[in-house]
Amino acid sequence: MTNYSTDVSNSQWQIISKYLDLKRRRKFDLREIMNGIFYLVKTGCQWRMLPKDFPNASIIYYYFNNWKNKGIIERLHDTMVKRTRKQEERKEEPTAAIVDAQSVKSTLVSGESRGFDAGKKVKGVKRHIMVDTLGLVLAVVIQSASIQDRDGAKDVIEKLASKRKKVVKIFGDGGYRGKLIDWTQERFKMDLEIIKRNELSQFKVLPKRWVVERTFSWIDTNRRNSKYYERLDDTGVAMVQLSLLRIMLNRL
User: Fold this and answer.
1) 15-19, 71-75, 91-95, 206-210: which range is least confident on average?
2) How many DSSP H helices and E strands does the chain contain?
3) Which of 145, 135, 151, 160 is nearest to 114 (CA)?
4) Cα separation of 23 and 169, whole Å?
5) What is the DSSP string of 108-166?
6) Spatial CA neighbour of 154 closest among 167, 139, 166
7) What pLDDT shows up at residue 4?
8) pLDDT of residue 114
9) Element (H or E) spanning 99, and its range?
10) Is the model's pLDDT at 206 over the cut of 60?
11) pLDDT at 202 over 90
12) Predicted structure pTM score
């Protein structure tokens, strides 16, 4: 049994284990597999560099890939969003969301959707996310950094609409102005409200906007997300979901 700060506690394992098949007899403990995944997400190490007191790295990666492809990681994350909202005395399904994007540098060989953000001078990918008013991620997509925010927002809005049927209001910054507002209303009956920065010469915490910026900082505290190392977009999505899953589990 490992003993790292990223290891899941007994109460946390009770939540996670409900989504895993524990009936089969296995050579490796699934709890130790999950501990290894969380260790990698937090520390940012390579799969092959996982400490030797975990099961073999290839075994841990096999289960990670399997759980990702079967949607188990996403279901775990989405369930914890509902539980966290309930703990904060909110309704399980939010009615408002906040959209924003983050351009992240990628390594030379990584990135299924690698591109160049001319505005921020970043070669890599763009994490486009939707969060609720607590900062919990409702939807996330990985895109090329070269995509304009107003164009890339369509993918994350579509993903949000497919999962969160009760969202009727979206807040965004000036990068989402234009035809996107009408497209969002006509396609999904959601109102996209632009929060403007009126006094550009002064620093000011904008209403609603600071929430999504805080979420990006939460994501970045997990070193696997400090730079983009993943080859596949769905792996990048899973790393974001695992980062927030750790935070929500620690809150309970």
Assistant:
1) 206-210
2) 8, 6
3) 145
4) 43
5) TT--TT-EEETTTTEEEEEEEEEE-TT--EEEEEEEETTS-HHHHHHHHHHHHHHH-TT
6) 139
7) 95
8) 86
9) strand 96-105
10) no
11) no
12) 0.92
Query: How many angstroms separate the CA atoms of 171 and 161, rounded?
Result: 15
Q: Does an H or E element contain 33, and which?
A: helix 30-43
Nearest Cα residue to 39 out of 7, 3, 68: 7
In the block, tokens 């995944």 appear at 37
Tokens 């696997």 identify what position?
224
Task: Give 217's contacts (C-beta < 8 A, 6+ positions apart).
Answer: none
Alpha-carbon dihedral 189, 157, 149, 202, rounded to 10 degrees: 70
Structural tokens at position 192: 């996209």
**Burial of residue 236 (number of CB atoms within 10 Å: 0-12, 13-18, 19+):** buried
CA nearest neighbour of 30 among 55, 57, 5 = 55
**How far is residue 95's CA from residue 252's CA, in Å, rounded to a whole number?**
23
Residue 119 CA to residue 245 CA, distance in Å, equals 31
